[in-house]
Amino acid sequence: MGTIYNSNRKFRIWAYTVSHSSLLLRSEMKYPDQDNYSDSTSSNIDIEFWAVNYINLPSDFFGIHIREITSEELPKEIDKELLKFDMKIFEFISAKSKYYIIAGGILIAQNKWINQDRIFNYGSNLEHDKILFQSN
Known about the structure:
The chain is mainly beta and about 140 residues long. Helices cover about 5% and strands about 50% of the residues.
């Protein structure tokens, strides 16, 4: 287990689809006429989870450190029954707080989709510009 992804960008819960148990977190891209535009902010960063069993996240957060942890590292207040069927535990550290997602897998990718393109098509198999990390 270990670190999956680090970023100092702002992320927010972008979509959750109950019927597919899928969660999308996004750091929105900036356009050249916006403040703080740079090459590193010129694309969206999407963090997608599938087979989601547990979500404990604020709706918006600045800066993240994501790592996959073992069941022994899971806080006692989270029911270990949620780990059935080979679920993975993802720990998010943001602003010195820890949050957790239990899911079947994670995909982290870059894209240049405009906001409307992604939200209405979420749940279908969309292509990404660049895959940064994937774990099934």
